[in-house]
Amino acid sequence: xxxxxKRNRTIFTAPQIDVLESYFAKQQYIVGPExxxxxxxxxxxxxxxxxxxxxxxxxxxxxxxxxxxxRLSDVGLSQDQKPEFQxxxxx
Length: 91
Known about the structure:
- This protein is mostly helical and 91 residues long.
- The protein has a domain at 14-74: Arc Repressor Mutant, subunit A, CATH 1.10.10.
- Helix content is 58%, strand content 0%.
- The radius of gyration is 21 Å and the shape is elongated.
- Keywords: DNA-binding, Homeobox, Nucleus.
- One of its GO terms (biological process) is central nervous system development.
- Residues 3-63 form the Homeobox domain.
């Protein structure tokens, strides 16, 4: 059996997070030369930037899902329910 070396958890600095968040606010995906340039600018590896964006997208989706659930609960619906519209064709 070969032992795989576990990668240490990256601790991002506040300025790095600020830059990453500002990029994420513009676009949720970053690839190729843009990711390479950002990694170089922040003194990170491309893999660290890639994983940060993956994790941030997960957080973003969870936040959006929670916001949607709150919106639906405000109007008395669960996420499974869809508003029903009744049309009276006879009137």
